[in-house]
Amino acid sequence: MKKLIIVIVFLLTTLKGFTQNNGDDLIGYWQTVDQKFLIKVFRENNKYVATIYSVDGKILEKQKNNIWDLKFNTDKKVWDNGKLQLPDMNHSVDCEIKMKSKDEAIILGYHGIKLLGKERKMKRLKN
Questions:
Q1: b/e burial code for range 113-122 (CB count within 10 A of at least 16 → b)
Q2: Are strands 118-124 and 59-73 parallel, antiparallel or unpaired?
Q3: Whose CA is closest to 117, among 125, 107, 103?
Q4: What is the pTM (predicted TM-score) of this model?
């Protein structure tokens, strides 16, 4: 009987690990594949926010660029319902980020229709 209880407890704790919210997987430093932008992602008030830096040679200049209000969607495994604004834009667009692997993600900016949006691939920077 004790063995059965131990097995049940083990299974329940293992299954809990598979269902954990892994929204924090996005937190860290990323760089777009074209190496134009460095993106710092962090969590603020249970939402995910990013500061975008332009990369000009060796000089990092902080811009007013922002990604804000991203929420992790546990069903779709994406960060969605966010907003994005780049320096050459006078307005914000909707934003979604999808991780392809632990070190690769795709950021999508769009006006209402995702199929007409623009994607940028990014890779995680190692510490």
A1: eeeebeebeb
A2: unpaired
A3: 107
A4: 0.76
